[in-house]
Design goal:
Blueprint lengths: L3 H19 L9 H12 L6 E3 L1 H9 L3 E6 L4 H16 L6 E9 L3 H8 L5 H7 L2 H4 L4 H13 L3 E6 L7 H19 L4 E7 L8 H4 L5 E6 L2 H4 L11 E6 L2 E5 L3 H15 L3 H4 L14 H16 L11 E4 L3 H11 L3 H14 L1 E4 L4 E4 L4 H16 L9 H18 L8 H11 L6 H19 L9 H9 L3 H19 L3 H13 L2 H18 L1
Parallel strand pairs: 2-5, 2-6, 3-4, 3-5, 6-8, 9-11
Antiparallel strand pairs: 1-7, 7-8, 10-11
Helix pairs in contact: 1-12, 1-23, 4-8, 14-17, 17-18, 18-22, 19-20, 20-22, 22-24
Length: 533
């Protein structure tokens, strides 16, 4: 495989990463104690690694007594990676008792944690009684899936955080957390403790040293020095690396997005070592974040990378965060939406968490998500270079937009989780012959539709009829969304296998052509690769 397509992608991501790092003040506000603590963490990271299957990683976790997972507090994918490890470990634990130890909770709030796990305390009151938003302050929605999974599966949670004096406080917190973990094992020697704690605590001389008589596995995530070198054509959205004996790294996002999450946190909170390293914090309020600036950065970066030649004045858009019904009615009038297109926009907003109104270049967001902004950027770029597109939201047009949105997401984050044909077939097999209702039933119908398109040949999509429009509508427009994602995934993988010139030329062409041209292009490239092999 030619590496030139990958080399230009690597260079682009290094540029994105440096641009993001240049705007972060966090590193300049560290005290000598914090800087020394951080330096010991970075020194413990080896320069070499090898790729392993995620199943091998889980086997090592199951053979341990304690797993220490390094949390990058501002990065949702960091908490998502821990959740993936927790879920896979629990599914293969064969009844072994598991306890999740979490830095996000203080040990002196254990009674409230136990009440919540037992169903005696609603979530709203639980967060108030633990003073979560002040004591921790990082987005609850990123940690909530972990806690909910523990509630559903009756997995114990213990808080391991504490307030300490100013002197040597990080080392004191290591000792405090170690005491709690050791006590858990004293109560039940078979317990597997899965600990989610700030990544700097995982340095050799820190928390692991306090647990040196335990069988420990350490897992860090999305470390810059491994992320880009490990990026290749077969990149998975969850990739495991072995760094050394019982020491691993998981990768599930691009480095620039990790640092962008810190930049966003800084903008909302200011620069404070206290708040980032476990001191009291203010609530995380995304309404204060400059979404427009971030989306414009993405648009300018993509425009320059692809050489689309879009003028700065054309890179315009409107963002509406958590629009209520009066706002939606206003937008319908402002943009002249038909009743049908208004209904589509409203349903897609609640199905996907965001919605893009074609030609108006308006983005509706239920909540902040870089995943959604990256996709919306692809929609806007397509609008800018395809000004003759009709405003009607047909099935064909929805697929067309989705391909460009997904491609933009993959260029900016190659580890992005995206539907592929293999995944569709696996999920369809899992859901077949089950009595389903609600969302799962809609997904099954969508998977069937996508599979049929691929089996009949993707050009069968142009035989679309009123019945297809109705099927897509009944499935909350998941057929057009998932089909577009599978096509974009295939296009991206095909282009990654080509040379540097064809990679950029091909990507640019895909934003400037219609759906027919997109499908013809990927078929032509696939044929070229088959001939070469």
């Amino acid at each position: 495989m030619s590496s030139s397509a990958l080399s230009i992608l690597h260079a682009f991501h290094q540029q994105l990463q440096q641009s993001t790092l240049d705007g972060i003040k966090h590193f300049h506000g560290q005290t000598p104690a914090i800087a020394s603590y951080a330096q010991r963490f970075h020194k413990c990271l080896p320069s070499t690694y090898k790729k392993i299957a995620s199943a091998s990683l889980i086997e090592c976790v199951l053979s341990s007594e304690v797993m220490l997972f390094g949390d990058f507090h501002t990065l949702p994918q960091s908490q998502g990676a821990f959740f993936d490890v927790l879920r896979q470990t629990y599914e293969r634990s064969a009844g072994r008792p598991i306890t999740v130890a979490m830095e996000i909770f203080a040990a002196n709030d254990q009674d409230h944690i136990d009440d919540f796990l037992a169903g005696r305390l609603p979530e709203e009151y639980f967060l108030k009684r633990t003073d979560y938003h002040n004591k921790w302050g990082f987005p609850w929605e990123n940690y909530k899936p972990i806690v909910d999974y523990c509630v559903q599966n009756k997995i114990a949670i213990v808080g391991i955080n504490c307030q300490t004096g100013e002197s040597n406080r990080l080392a004191k917190r290591d000792l405090f957390a170690a005491d709690i973990i050791n006590n858990l094992h004293s109560s039940n020697t078979d317990t597997l403790v899965l600990c989610l704690i700030g990544e700097y605590h995982l340095a050799d001389q820190h928390l692991p040293k306090c647990l040196d008589h335990r069988r420990i596995v350490r897992i860090v995530n999305n470390i810059d020095d491994y992320s880009l070198p490990a990026l290749d054509r077969g990149t998975q959205n969850f990739q495991a690396l072995e760094l050394g004996a019982n020491f691993f790294c998981v990768l599930n996002t691009s480095p620039w997005l990790k640092w962008q999450s810190l930049a966003m946190w800084e903008e909302l909170h200011g620069v404070s070592e206290d708040s980032f390293y476990g001191g009291e914090n203010d609530a995380y309020t995304v309404q204060e974040y400059d979404f427009e600036y971030q989306l414009l950065f993405i648009l300018k970066s993509m425009n320059e990378f692809l050489g689309l030649g879009i003028s700065a004045s054309d890179l315009s858009f409107d963002i509406y965060l958590k629009p209520d019904r009066p706002t939606l009615s206003y937008l319908r009038s402002k943009f002249g939406l038909s009743r049908t297109n208004y209904a589509i926009a409203e349903r897609k907003l609640h199905q996907d968490g965001f919605c893009y109104i074609p030609r108006a270049k308006a983005i509706l967001l239920l909540d902040f998500s870089m995943h959604h902004l990256l996709e919306a950027a692809g929609f806007i770029l397509m609008d800018c270079v395809n000004k003759r597109l009709p405003k009607q939201g047909s099935f064909i047009q929805r697929v067309h937009y989705q391909i460009c949105g997904t491609l933009c997401g993959l260029i900016m984050n190659p580890r992005r989780q995206t539907s592929t044909l293999d995944q569709v077939e696996r999920d369809l097999k899992r859901l077949q012959r089950k009595r389903l209702s609600g969302e799962l039933r809609k997904y099954r119908e969508a998977y069937k539709g996508v599979r049929d398109f691929h089996e009949e040949g993707v050009h069968s999509v142009f035989k679309s009829s009123k019945s297809l429009e109705e099927r897509d509508k009944d499935a909350n427009f998941l057929i057009s969304r998932i089909f577009g994602e599978t096509i974009a995934s295939e296009i991206f993988q095909v282009l990654l296998a080509d040379d540097e010139a064809e990679f950029k030329k091909g990507l640019a062409a895909l934003f400037t052509t219609d759906l027919v041209g997109q499908l013809q292009y990927v078929n032509r490239l696939a044929g070229k690769l088959r001939s070469a092999s």
